Amino acid sequence: MKVKLIDHKGTVVGDHNINKDLANHPVNEQLVHQSVVTFLANQRQGTHKTKSRSEVRGGGRKPFSQKGTGRARAGTSRSPIWRGGGIVFGPQPRSYRKNLNKKMKTGALISTLAFKLNEKKLFVLKDFSNSNKFNKTKDAENLLKTLDLSKHSLLVLDGADQQSIKSTNNIDNITTLSSDLINASAVARSEYMIITEQGLNNLMENRLKNNLNKSTKSNTKNTNKKAKNNTNNKERNNA
């Protein structure tokens, strides 16, 4: 499948061939949702803490005598029903960590990339050179204006120099990542994705190639099984 190749100014300079298996891969929305929830849950520190009545300082003396005051009896001023007392069933430090196996993480990433590819929201950026790069923040903003990308974009700048990467730090609607750190959550939360040729090649070779080959083999097996079952059913009906 061919995708338009653009330079650092947003001008179309040619086409880039992308593995057709990626475009034909089915989008598993449930798996993407599971991956995003897992990613967001693992960002939580879980350091929330409230004090129970035994942890609040003070309250060792009985606030008033047991009888004769007309008030309800009380043994401590740190009771949960008193102002300044302990908290009942309040949040305690805990881990929110969730786990996904490697195959599910990669499958969710492939689904998000396939969706961006089919929706034509993925752009391939020509590799950076001394003359083809972002010299300042304005150059990166001009790229977004040329492509008419007003919403959040994910920018993958593998092979770019540090100056080009730093030039995108001051732009609110851009997140910059390297190809080895891309995850389904980062792709899903971005409306558009811009990736360099080197970044796309690294992503395909190092993380996606084996899974795409396995999925295509399994899909062909399933289609062959369905075809055999259909022929067998027809033969039985004719008999």
Helicity level? 40-55%
Structural class by helix and strand composition: alpha/beta
The CATH class designation of the largest domain is Alpha Beta
Tally of DSSP β-strands? 6
User: What composes the largest sheet?
Assistant: 6 strands, mixed
End-to-end distance: 45 Å
Strand content: 5-15%
Q: What average pLDDT do the residues reach?
A: 86
- The CATH topology of the largest domain comes to Ribosomal Protein L4, Chain: A
How are helices and strands ordered from N to C?
A: EEHHHEHEHEHEH
Strand order of the largest sheet: 2-1-3-6-4-5
- Count of discrete structural domains: 2
What is the overall silhouette? flat
Condensed summary:
The chain is of the alpha/beta class and 239 residues long. Helices cover 42% and strands 12% of the residues.
Task: Provide structural commentary.
- The chain is an alpha/beta fold.
- The protein has 2 domains: 2-44 and 99-221, Ribosomal protein L4/L1 (Ribosomal Protein L4, Chain: A), CATH 3.40.1370.10; 47-95, no CATH class.
- It is built from 7 helices and 6 strands; from the N terminus they run E-E-H-H-H-E-H-E-H-E-H-E-H.
- Helix 2 (29-42) packs across helix 3 and helix 3 packs across helix 7.
- The longest helix is centred in the last third of the chain and has 42 residues, at 197-238.
